[in-house]
Amino acid sequence: MKSRYLIFLMPLIVVLTYWMWSGEEKISYNRQIRPIINNKCISCHGGVKQSGGFSLLFEEEAKMNTESGKPAIIPGDAGASEMVKRLTHHDPEMRMPLGKAPLSTEEIDLIKEWINQGANWEKHWAYIAPKKEIEVPEVSMDVPAQNEIDHFIFKKLEEIELRPNEEAPKELLLRRLSLDITGLPPTLEAYEEFISDTSPMAYEKTVDKLLASPRFGEKWAAFWMDLARYSDSKGYEKDLHREIWKYRDWLINAFNQDMPFDQFTIAQLAGDLLPKPTESDLLATAFHRNTMANDEGGTNDEEFRVAAVMERVGTTYEVWQSTTMACVQCHSHPYDPIRHVEFYQSQAFFNNTQDKDLYNEQPKVFTYQAEDKQKVKELLSWVNDKLKPSEKLPKISDEFLHQQKEDLLYNLGYRKVEAEEFQDKSRFIELVAHDQESIWQVQDSSWIMFENVDLDQVTAISLGYASIYGAQLEIRLDSMLGEIIGKGNFGITDKNFPGNKPKDWETLKVPIKPVSGKRDVFYYFKKDKTFAQDLIRLDWVFYHEKSPSIDKYPQSIQAKLVELSNAKPVQTPILKDLPKSNSRKTYVFERGDWRSKGEEVKAGIPEIMGTLSSQEPNRLDFAKWLVSGENTLTSRVFVNRIWEQLFGYGIVESMEDFGSQSIPASHPELLDWLAVNFQDEMKWSMKTLIKKILMSQSYRQSSTTDEQKMKKDPYNKYLSRGSRTRLPAETIRDQALAISGLLNEKQLGPSVMPYQPENIISFNGKFWFPSEGEEKYRRAVYTYWKRTHPYPSFVTFDSPSREICTSRRIRTNTPLQSLVLLNDPVYIEAAEAWAQRILKESAGDIKRGIEKNLQLVTAKKPESEKVEVLHKLYLESLAYYEGEGKDLDENAQLAAMRIVSNAMLNLDEFVTRR
Ligand code: HEC
Ligand code: HEC
């Protein structure tokens, strides 16, 4: 009997022991081996250096012959593997890691075991697609889970033996929601409404209402603007003005309309290549025209064009892949399996755009502000109706009004061109300072070029100019040394134009030889007799046709046409590819130096990330791949960014790097679950994703903590409590304006210049012209952004300079922040306006007024102790202004209350999201 059982059991036991042994001992490359290699070996055996011909970056390299002629890793045989011998070598010159402390016995044993088991290699998790069916863990927590997110969070808490917190008090929840969704605090009425709504749907209703607010886009555009390195100036030393605010408005609208993230991606990276791009698609591509541009005279345009293109590659990979591609510019990636050549394969997608560091930022899209748009459309339609059929436009449509206007004027032979719209230029051509609306500093033998000008009917060309010394002009065809078709002399118009702008513009009219067809026209400027630093300033060019049909129309129509030609469009730099015939070749740059070209490369993505189906992929194919199901990173990376916005830290804390040196995810399965759902279930809807997170119990927890939580989860990585963070710079400003009642709710439009210290000047003189009236109370997102002089109170609260893409702001707490809140005129004005309101509302009961208003900062009804202290501050200040300080301020009550409201804007509750 017994033996019979044994016979049956024997095979089972053997199988079981084997299974248990191999199951338990199976070494994970990613979890156990990679960290050792990354920390101890990769700097000498990776992408940059392959000492001894041995590299551990790619499996095939690790297992191939080294300089010694045989592989250092022999799978299955640790004893024979050089890699193991070197770890315990008696000669310190041979023992690895060279010149560093030896590995621990456990580490060496792990490596031995790993090789004995076959040296099994694994891809880094980020390059493996998340599983489609991720099981949501069961939890037995007595706190109810609201959705799947809580299951993942609570499971982890169970593991570390912590409990989530209770739900935060309603008032705090409302403030948290309001600040997170709209970037603005709730009003007193909103608190009342939320508290009195006791229905189970109250929370969700509020979330929906806030998500639908047009304020949502203004809040959420800001973090993307850090990634897009949005700025109203071009950067580098001169850091001149750049007109690109329409891109910011595009972003705000995209967030408000909940544009799906796949469309959002494609529009920004390749909107220009869509089959029929709209104005909006083109504006979106300004994303990559936020690169810096160098306006210094005499710099090499190609050098800075290339720098911008390389920057676009690095930024694209950082924003969508959290991959440090910029490290692959000069050598293969030191830690991640990306080869040097692969940087340039990616560069080929971006290397074919027309822009080339020209001052005028061509190519651009010309659009109108809402109010002008209507006017231009009416004028155009009015004129168009009166024209002969042969000169008419078939119909006037809303899109591309500027182009229609140009076409119409062209049909009529009214051909005025702004001088700064040239397509190419020589050195020493610059644009006049802040507005950059005319050309200056035209030194001897310099030129500008206009492409493809139709000269068929043209008999003369006029130029609007000003000059101190006089100069000569030659108009040439097709090249700078081409045939001269006209010559003229610029006279002296002004002896000393001060600063940058001449007083008067003169006209020089130059008759030209008859030329047929479309040609490139070069304007070649030469000095006159005297030596001249500064030849002329040029404002516009006009092509005179033999018999322009505009002359045949009555004066009334002609006047409208001139009005039309004067309507000023908004110019936005965009991406636009060169025609195929002119496309650029892309080469590897040896050691990243654009002057030493290596092999030519074709466009493609890094091998580790997959392959593209198209034979000759372009930028659009690349953008589509990013948001295709095949990409393993895009969705994870974006979900992580949203998570960070709502919890203060990403699931992967290193927002900018998901590579092998990244900080391990706190909840890897949750990250994958969210990523898969965002892509498949939510169809890339950003608002749906945000709502999902806001609805979770994990988000709703109170942010209080205790000793045990501080010990086991000091940074709240596991969300054992609600998140509590210092508010971002923009929200702090907006909150002060909102609470005080100063906030101007106007949306969109050119950037504004609120107060900042006077006499801030840059390399090019004064650039800050404080906005008048209500404009200075616009939301922070509209503040003019100058890279070399970022707005001081934002910098103090950790905003970046936006010279480069910034994935996360590192939060600091410094006394300077308090000084800003106490002294910056923006906060003083806010305090004053708020004080006035408190006095008006509660003149009879100051203490009650303080109590009521303090809730705007604290959310919860304030404790009486705090009110007591503030009231005392009021009384003491009042006594001071009525007595000793009588001569300082005309209104003692207001001055005293201002001190109180100023103090309230300085409370910890004010700067903290709790
Ligand atoms: C500071 C640089 C440095 C570090 C760190 C380093 N090595 Fe090396 N390693 C070298 C150099 C230089 C050589 C070539 C000279 C030689 O063979 O001793 C080499 C050679 C080797 C070889 C011999 C290759 C062959 O077959 O010829 C192996 C194997 C090796 N290293 C493994 C490792 C491992 C494993 C680590 C990490 C635990 C490591 N090294 C860390 C510098 C380094
Ligand atoms: C502008 C060019 C350039 C860029 C961009 C660049 N590197 Fe390097 N890096 C170099 C050069 C040059 C060396 C020296 C190579 C050599 O010794 O052969 C080097 C060496 C290294 C080394 C080896 C250091 C050693 O121990 O000798 C590491 C590691 C490294 N780089 C990491 C990085 C990382 C990470 C990034 C991205 C954040 C980066 N590099 C970006 C040019 C660059």
Automatic annotation (TrEMBL):
Pfam families: CBM_6, PSCyt1, PSCyt2, PSD1. The chain crosses the membrane at residues 5-21. Keywords: Membrane, Transmembrane, Transmembrane helix. GO terms for molecular function: carbohydrate binding. Residues 148-354 form the DUF1549 domain. Residues 618-873 form the DUF1553 domain. It comes from the Bacteria. Residues 434-541 form the CBM6 domain. Residues 41-97 form the Cytochrome C Planctomycete-type domain. This is Cytochrome c domain-containing protein. Coiled coil: none annotated.
